[in-house]
């Protein structure tokens, strides 16, 4: 198996977890390269359901090394809770590794996330309030604490002192919130250090050694293309590079070692949080209600109801370009079985100009009106279909339309939540 980046092509929640879980067992390592416990997906094994936020999907496969890369931010408490959950169920975490360079989410990051959202009022971003943005902010400001700092109490205390001298006045004077002392945070965090010590390592070196031995790596993207700090709908984005390029900087593996980029694309589109979404349907509309309820579009991490809309082909095309997609995995095609006809956005009309790629200028994108093509639905349950040629002609035509819009072949088509409910067309 060649090393592969798996990336969301929309605003997240495309079903990355299912596809990642499906193929993870074919790789020697699975690496998370960005984000933290803002991500969330559920893996179902037999009658057990596991909600993963921090740990890579490879954990379900004993032979697979699971790596939390240097580009990630880590909440040690959440990580230990996940480790304990797996160990209690007999799933070994011996192959879990955490980069010493990954940044630590501190209690004040969560405070700042909530407070800055409250201050933005109606312009709020709609973050997961997990402290992700402030943690990356301090990384860039160079006052962050990293996993390796946990292993040396003296350094941890020194760096924390510097960070608090910068953070406490902000908490107190700008937001009117309680401040922190070094001792108070050390009391909570230093015990995490002892438990996490066996997992912390130089993960970039480990991965490169594996590549030298001919082993293959799956880079598991979290969030998605339009939530990317550079290529997404800024400022309504997350604070890391979710696109395929992030796999290189967030893991320490050079780009010559990556062969494929698999884009996960839901057959319609969803979004949580604020920001523009040209094909959005209101929950009150019949179509919006159907997509939400049949697709069960509620967040794993926050439980929030997702915004829903018809497939946006302009975004699919943009994601293919920005990530350099080699393959698509189309998910939740079965959900569209409820409609007589299905709309697909093939272009935007922005004040009389037609766009087939996401306009760079935010005001243009905010005014984008979808130009729809209406295609026939198949009006039946396809969740039992396992071969592409057994899909109704309308469903096959829909997949082919998605391939045309993204200029990328659909190697997988998913027709239900279970592993088996997947059509593998070209993936080897
Ligand atoms: P943050 O990542 O918590 O800072 O949130 C920034 C934006 O990204 C918000 O709109 C969140 O709803 C969105 N977001 C973060 N993580 C996910 C995810 O895993 N799926 C979908 N949206 C996400």
Which properties best describe this structure?
Adenylosuccinate Synthetase, Chain A, domain 1, four-stranded mixed β-sheet, binds inosinic acid, 12 helices, 3 domains, Adenylosuccinate Synthetase, subunit A, domain 2, single chain, globular, ten-stranded mixed β-sheet, alpha/beta, 428 residues, Adenylosuccinate Synthetase, Chain A, domain 3
Q: How does this structure look, described?
A:
The chain is α/β, with parallel strands linked by helices and 428 residues long. The protein folds into three domains: 4-99 and 199-260, Adenylosuccinate Synthetase, subunit A, domain 1 (Adenylosuccinate Synthetase, Chain A, domain 1), CATH 3.40.440; 103-196, Adenylosuccinate Synthetase, subunit A, domain 2, CATH 1.10.300; 265-424, Adenylosuccinate Synthetase, Chain A, domain 3, CATH 3.90.170.10. It has helices at residues 16-24, 76-88, 107-120, 132-141, 153-174, 182-196, 203-212, 246-249, 286-294, 313-323, 362-366, 393-406; strands spanning 4-8, 29-32, 41-45, 48-52, 65-68, 73-74, 96-99, 103-104, 200-201, 217-220, 260-266, 269-271, 280-281, 307-309, 311-312, 327-331, 341-350, 353-355, 369-376, 410-414, 422-424. A ten-stranded mixed beta sheet has the order 9-7-5-2-10-1-11-16-20-21, sandwiched between helices. Strands 15, 17, 18 and 19 form a four-stranded mixed beta sheet that branches. The chain has a three-stranded antiparallel beta sheet with strand order 12-14-13, covered by helices on one side. A hairpin with a 2-residue loop joins strand 3 and strand 4 (48-52). The longest helix has 22 residues, at 153-174. The N and C termini lie close together (7 Å). 49% of the residues are buried. Bound molecules: inosinic acid (IMP). Residues 12-13, 38-40, 125-128, 130, 132-133, 222-223, 227, 236, 238-239, 272-273 line the site of inosinic acid.
